Amino acid sequence: MIRFERGQPIVRPGEIEIAGRRVALRAVPFAGDAGPPPFRFDPVTRMAVLRRSEGLVEAGPDEPEAWRRPISRAPAGPALIGPSVPAELVRRAARAAAEAAREAGRAVYLLDPDPDSLPAAPCRPFVSIFTGIPAETLWSAVGAASAQMPAGLLLPILPGWTSEESYLTEVLDRAAQVGASFVAGVAMAGGGEARRRIVAARALFEPGTEDAFFDRVHHCDWDAEVARALLALRAGARSRGLSDRPPRPRGDGEPAGNAAVAARLEELAETDAGSEHRQALLRAAVRWLDERGRDLRPVVAEGNFRKIFPFGAEIAPEVERAFASLP
User: Fold this and answer.
1) Domain count of the chain?
2) Residue 273 binned pLDDT confidence (cut-offs 50, 70, 90)
3) Nearest Cα residue to 260 out of 271, 246, 250, 269
4) pTM to 2 decimals?
5) Which of 4, 31, 228, 249 has the highest CB neighbour number within 10 Å of its CB?
């Protein structure tokens, strides 16, 4: 039996990355891993989370006002809200947190939203991100969310399971079919505990396959197989008109130009083959842009951008080019 207990809003400030996108805070509407499904994949820790069949789940408040203050006080930038659970129909915690983030002017990523947690239109500040091993229930949820906002799948790349070429082809075809706008791969953690959880998840998903899967997981060249699958997934997504990463939403409190350039810099940081120092500068510039409440496009057009940009000439040209390319 799953018991729900009303709790306080859980808002965790702190910079994290989801499929190459910066997130400034995470709001957790339901705390406690109990109930269906029997496992999930966390894109933050990049590990499988095994769930108990019964236990206590703490549900956050169902009023946006209770979430607004802790969300507003967190550092500037997009919010990650979720995952939700089927009890959302009664508890309404995920929707309350999402509405509070929108009212605070933030861009919002909804993690595994239950259909009943989707905010009312208009939905510009939102992108829905679904994780896990695709099944009909997941595809149905992606399709429902896609009717209201950009939505897609974060696929955990698991050697011997989701990394296979035929599997990737099937996932991409189905994603295009249900109206997803993106499919992004997530390189899951490959340490001993992470692999143990993955084997346990496979046993729950497809009983009887765990022994052969155990051998594959523990004796493969993990990094090489993941890298190959990620390349294949990106190429396959683009060939079907899908993005290989979630789009960055724009909050009502963000200048449109700043948000668009921040998204471009996130993409450069993920794909840039240069030094780690340069990648760190690009990510720092994203954080700096998120903190600006003023539209910087006129500043760039007037030639004054480098007077206020704190990261020197190394990446200033990239930022200026990104602003100049805006429609």
Assistant:
1) 2
2) low
3) 250
4) 0.94
5) 249
Which residues span the domain enclosing 115?
A: 2-239
Q: Give a yes or no: residue 250 inside a domain.
A: no
Q: Considering 185, 205, 239, which residue would you say is the last residue of a domain?
A: 239
Q: Please, which residues have CB within 8 angstroms of residue 218's CB and are 6 or more apart in sequence? A: 195
Helix (H, G, I), strand (E, B) or coil at 34: strand
Structural domain includes residue 84: yes
> Cβ(26)–Cβ(46) under 8 Å?
no
The DSSP secondary structure of 104-155, one letter per residue, reads TT--EEEES--GGGPPPSP-TTEEEEEESS--HHHHHHHHHHHTTS-EEEEE
Residue 248 main-chain phi, psi, to 5 deg: -90, 120
Six-digit token pair at 301? 């057009």
Q: Tell whether 14 and 121 lie within a shared domain.
A: yes
Q: How far is CA 322 from the centre of its chain?
A: 23
Size of the chain, expressed as the number of residues it contains: 327
- Domain check: are 8 and 114 in the same one? yes
- Sign of the dihedral defined by the CA atoms of residues 37, 99, 260, 258, in that order: negative
Looking at the fold, whether 235 and 282 belong to one and the same domain comes out as no
Query: Within this chain, do residues 161 and 260 fall inside the same structural domain, yes or no?
Result: no
Q: Is the pLDDT of residue 3 over 80?
A: yes
Instruction: Assess whether 200 and 298 both reside in one domain.
Output: no
| Digit-coded pLDDT (tens) for 149-191 | 999 999 999 999 999 999 999 999 999 999 999 999 999 988 8
For residues 98-107, give the mean pLDDT: 95
- Joined together, the tokens standing for residue 132 give 């896990």
Q: Are strands 126-131 and 108-111 parallel, antiparallel or unpaired?
A: parallel
Provide mean pLDDT across the span 4-25.
Answer: 94
Work out whether the CA dihedral 272, 278, 282, 287 comes out positive or negative. positive
Assess whether 308 and 260 both reside in one domain.
yes
Are 151 and 270 in contact, with CB atoms under 8 Å apart? no
Residue 187 burial (C-beta neighbours within 10 Å; 0-12, 13-18, 19+): middle
